[in-house]
Amino acid sequence: MGIKSHTQDCSGEKVDIVRELHKNMDSTREKMEKETLIFIEATKSFTLEWIQRELELNTLPMGKDVYPRNKDTDKKKPDKMSHLKEMNSGIPLIVEENLNRDEYWAHRDQLLQNDVFRDYLEFKKDKMKKGLTSSVRMILGCAAEIFADLKDEAPGDRIWVKERGRRKYICILRFSDEMTASLDRYFTMLEELLILGNEMKEIEKRTQARENKKGR
Question: Which residue has the higher pLDDT, 54 or 157?
Fold first, then answer.
C-alpha cells in the first residue's frame, strides 16, 4: 500500500511531514541529476586530454621519421590525421552515450532501496564506481584501433583487451580530480536520499501498524 493512501487518516502534522519528505527527496534527486551531468562533462574533458596525450605519443615518432619511410604510408597520413580529428570532435557524444545511462546512476533507479545500512550504501557506491570505470575504459578503447592504424601496426595487447566486440583499456586508470570530486558529492547526496527514503519507510510502517490495529 502506498504512502498516498495512508495520509488520508494521518493527522495534519503527519501529512505535512510526508509532504516535506517528498519535497526533500525530489530536491535531492534533482541535485543528483545535476551532479551526474557535471561528472559527464568532467569525463569529456578527461577523455579529450587523454586522447591528446596519445595523439602526441603516436604522431611525434612519425614526424621524426623514427619508422622506415614508405610512400604509400605517407600518402595515407593526411586521411589518418583527418580521421583522428573527426574522432576527437566526436568524443563528447561517445562519452554522453556511454555514461548518460540510467543503469549507472542510483537516483534514477525507481527500485532503489530505502536503506541506511552502511553495507548497502557501500555496495551501491562500489557498483557505480565499477560500472563507470568500465565504461570509461571502453570509451578510451575507441581510440585504440585508430592509433594503431596511424602507426601501421596492430594494437598492442599489453594495454588493450577485447570485450563485447569492442576494445577496452586495461592499464591503471585514475579519474581526474574533477571527476573524483563530482562523484564524492554525488555519493554524499545518495546517502541523504537513502536517509530520507528510510524516514518515509518508517512513517509507512507506523501507519500500516495503526491501520492493522483498527482492522482488528
Answer: 54
Which CB contacts under 8 angstroms, 24+ apart, belong to 29-35?
29/107, 29/193, 31/189, 32/105, 32/106, 32/107, 32/186, 32/189, 32/190, 32/193, 33/105, 33/107, 33/108, 35/182, 35/185, 35/186, 35/189
Residue 44 CB partners (closer than 8 Å, separation 6+): 91, 92, 95, 96
Distance between CA atoms of residues 162 and 203, nearest Å: 50
pTM attached to this predicted model? 0.76
Plot region of 152 (φ>0 → left; ψ -120 to 50 → alpha; else → beta): left
- Mean pLDDT on 46-50: 90
Residue 7 corresponds to which cell in the numbers above?
Answer: 495520509
Least confident of 27-31, 154-158, 208-212: 154-158
Q: Which long-range contacts does 85-93 make (Cβ < 8 Å, 24+ apart)?
A: 87/51, 87/142, 87/143, 87/146, 88/48, 88/51, 88/52, 88/55, 91/44, 91/47, 91/48, 91/51, 91/139, 92/44
User: Residue written as cell 524516514?
Assistant: 199
Under 8 Å between Cβ of 28 and 192: yes
pLDDT digits (tens, 9 = 90+) for 124-180: 999 999 999 999 998 888 766 556 555 555 555 555 566 666 677 778 889 999 999
* Main-chain dihedrals φ then ψ at residue 168, nearest 5 degrees: -130, 135
Domain chopping of the chain, boundaries: 15-210
